[in-house]
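Re: fe (ii) ion structure - here you go.
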Amino acid sequence: MKTKRISDKMEKALNAQMTREAVQAQVYLSYASWAEVNGLAGIAAFLYKHSNEERQHMFKFLKFINDRGGHALVQAIAAPPVDPKDLGDCLRKTLQHEIDNSRSIDEIVNLAHEEKDWAAFNFGQWFVKEQIEEETLINKLLDQYNLATDQKRQNENIYALDRDYAEATQEVVIPREEVI
Ligand SMILES: [Fe+2]
Ligand SMILES: [Fe+2]
C-alpha cells in the first residue's frame, strides 16, 4: 500500500496494541501449560484456545495497519508472568488481563474518534464487542469457581450439582401410572 491512510500517531497506537495482543497470547499459552501440568485439563483446553484467539487478534491488527498504508512492526515481547498460585488466581489474573486490554482498546477508539478516522473507529468497534464477550466469559468461569469453592456456604459441589440440574429430566412416571 503506497497511500498512507492512518496518522503516525494511530500507526504507533495500533502497533503497540498488536504487540499487546501477542503478549496476551503468550501469557495464556503459559497459563495453559501451567494448568496442564497441574492436572487441570479443562481450563488448560480453554486457555490453549484463548491463546490462539489472541494470536488471531494480533494478526488482525497487523493486517489493518498494513492495509491502511502503515507498517506493522513485529517486536520482541516480554516473558510471560510467573505461574498462577492456583485455579482461582489463574482466573482472576486472566480477567484482569482482559480488563486492562479493554482499556487499551478504548484508547484506540478514543483516538480514532478524535482524529475522525472512521475506518479505525469501525475496526476498533469489533474489538470493543470482542472484549465484552471475553470479559463476560471469564467472569462466568470465575463465578462458577467461586460457587464451587465457597467453604463458608459449604457448597463446594453446588456447581457440579447445578450443571447436572441443566440435564435433569422433565418427566417422571408417577407410581399409579407405572406399568409393571
Ligand atoms: Fe485480544
Ligand atoms: Fe482477550
